[in-house]
Design the sequence.
C-alpha cells in the first residue's frame, strides 16, 4: 500500500477548489485521435459553479453559460491568475442563485428523509 501511495503521489492530486474558482478542463476527447498534437490540450477558462458529492463539478464559462454535463474531478485543474479577475453580472447572479437553491433543496431533502424515517417506525 505504501509503495502504491508513493508511486501515485505525483499523479493523484486533490485541489481545494471553492465556488467561483477559475479552472481549466482537460480535453480528454482528443487523447485517442491521431492528430492530437495539434488540438488544444485544455478547454478553459471556466468557473466552478457547484461541486457534487462524488467529486464531479458543475462548471460555467465566463459569459455565464453553464455546461450541460458534469465534469470529473481528475479533468479539472486550477487556473492561477496574477491578479483577480472580475466576473460579469450573469456569472455572479448564477453563483448566488444556485447556492441558495441548492441549500433549499438540501433542506427539503433532509425533511423528507426525516418524514420517511418517522413513517417506517
Sequence:
Amino acid at each position: 500500500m505504501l509503495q502504491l501511495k508513493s508511486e501515485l503521489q505525483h499523479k493523484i492530486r486533490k485541489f481545494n477548489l471553492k465556488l467561483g474558482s477559475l479552472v481549466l478542463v482537460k480535453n480528454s476527447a482528443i487523447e485517442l485521435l491521431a492528430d492530437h498534437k495539434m488540438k488544444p490540450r485544455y478547454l478553459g477558462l471556466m468557473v466552478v459553479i457547484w461541486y457534487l458529492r462524488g467529486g464531479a463539478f458543475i462548471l460555467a464559462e465566463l459569459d455565464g453559460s453553464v455546461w450541460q454535463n458534469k465534469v470529473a474531478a481528475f479533468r479539472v485543474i486550477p487556473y492561477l491568475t496574477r491578479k483577480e479577475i472580475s466576473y460579469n453580472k450573469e456569472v455572479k447572479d448564477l453563483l448566488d442563485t444556485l447556492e441558495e437553491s441548492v441549500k433549499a433543496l438540501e433542506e427539503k431533502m433532509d425533511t423528507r428523509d426525516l418524514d420517511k424515517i418517522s413513517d417506517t417506525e
